[in-house]
Amino acid sequence: MEAEPPGDLDEERVLARYQLSSFQHGCAVEAQAGTYIDLCFAEEFTPTDIEDTFDRRLTQVVEAVTRFAVSFAWLSSKVPGSRRVLPPSGLGERDTWVEAARSSRCWSPEELSALASSDIGLGRVEDADRLTLMVSTAGGVYERVVPNATPLRGHERRGLAAEVAVQDAAATWGLPDFVMVPSVERKGRGVREISDGLLVVGDRGVVVQIKAREGEPGTREKESSWVLKQLAAAAKQIHGTVRRLKMHSVQMTTGRGRSVHIDSPSVDWVGVTIIEHPAPPSDVPVTPQPGVTPVIALLRRDWEFLFDQLRSTHAVVAYLHRIGGSAPVLGDEPERYYELAAADAAAAPGPVDPVWKRRGGQPYSVPLLPAAPAGSDDNEAHAMVRIMLEDVATSLTGPDQWEPWQAVLASLDSLPVGYRTNLGRFLLDALSAVATAEAGTTAWRMRTFIAGPEKDQLGFVICSALADHTRAAFSAWLQLRHHERGEDADLSSLTSLGVLLTPRMDGYREWDTTVQVISGNPELSEADLRVYQNLWNANHGGVGSGSKA
């Protein structure tokens, strides 16, 4: 951007000229709303003296704004919790997954045909600033760009900046509620840190250890030796942390700044060593580390790839528990992911809850590991699910609810990634539909997901109004759906969770969010059961139906 020289304000005056470095003719230009300063000058402005120019006053405004920005930055740094990752330069979110035929690399038809017919349908091209994978899917060959790790914040030590970046990636693309920031505890006369952070989702956890290369890198041999030493040292630290966690529970602070109790002895743990290196050496072999707890070695780039690809802490933690060990070569995690994604796509669907078919539900099979990045097929729909989860997470009234709410969020986040676009689009369309309900009627839309006979049942309901009678009807619907699962299973070990969204018209926010959880047998009386069945089963079909009452 180049500012024009100061001068008189005429009817119209150019103040500055700018050019977008990434602009190309024909491409759409979008802006992201943020904080801005709106300047205006009095219509009959009279300078106080000859030095009172527009340039001088504009300089004073810029200085004032700068002081505000510095103050806000200082204040925000004092707020506990994780922050968003810093965006990488030169790569848009939509550029990471494109049809290979439309790639700027101009792959030839012969190359694409050879890749599609290969055994694993996976190719690799590594440049200085990114890794490009060619992925063969049922819909054709796609190019998946895995950019280098996001920029580090300006901390004095690279290691501290890497810790912050690792936490921010998990909190930004996942939920900050599952990110446990590093904490210290007293041991004798000293103190010790409980790892570089934990991820805890339900009964699964990840112990994170970060090793950052300080100073200038040396030869490839020297850097490879450094990496192998750090992997061994980190594995020992992880094993020590897990032994400590298995002894007794801990109190930790989440990425949202909430202090929660973790029943760590009952959690199933794996370890992850994350290597932060300005220029990671290539072809470093990774051998299994001795110890009871599985330890997985990742580059920070690969850690961010997993969270950006799945956008669910539950899904990333499940993936890490599934692989249970490092890839043979450090940095090959994206390739291993796509090999497993291809296997998931070819796998037979799992068992379906018997009550599902009786209720008119439709089996819908998706791979646990999607080939396309989460949200790439409908970013608006996927964002809607993330906003709903954020609403649920921030709807607490006090610290006494923080610990049980962790289980609620873990249950919601367990919804497989492949279902989220479907859910998000349903929520958006249903909110729009019920907002125009006829006077004197109450419009309902509902959808239920069961990912397996032993999994939590997740119900999502949209209603045109929030009142005592609609809350009661929503509760009746959830109790009935939970009760119906008991016809083929023991309800004592099952949970159903319902989320109710009701649009608002006051401009304060777009909707209200209500959550209800049922575990075990609701023990409905015959009279209650008849009322609930007459209300929800008598006049319309099964799961996912819409109705007006």
In short:
The chain is α+β, with helices and mostly antiparallel strands. It has helices at 54-77, 109-116, 158-173, 220-247, 300-310, 313-323, 333-346, 354-358, 379-393, 402-413, 417-434, 468-485, 526-536, and strands spanning 2-3, 16-17, 97-99, 122-126, 130-137, 140-147, 179-180, 184-187, 190-193, 198-201, 204-212, 250-253, 259-262, 268-276, 295-299, 443-450, 457-463, 495-503, 511-519, 546-548.
Descriptive account of the structure:
35% of the residues lie in helices and 20% in strands. It is of the alpha+beta class and 549 residues long. A 5-stranded mixed β-sheet has the order 7-10-11-14-15. A 5-stranded mixed β-sheet has the order 19-18-17-16-20, sandwiched between helices. It is globular, with a radius of gyration of 27 Å. It starts with a strand and ends with a strand. Mean pLDDT is 87; it is low at 540-549.
Total count of helical runs of at least 4 residues: 13
Supply the helix-strand structural class.
alpha+beta
Largest sheet composition: 5 strands, mixed
Q: Tell me, what's the shape?
A: globular
Termini separation: 58 Å
Mean pLDDT: 87
Strand order of the largest sheet: 7-10-11-14-15
Please mark out the parts with pLDDT under 50 across 5 or more consecutive residues, or reply none. Answer: 540-549
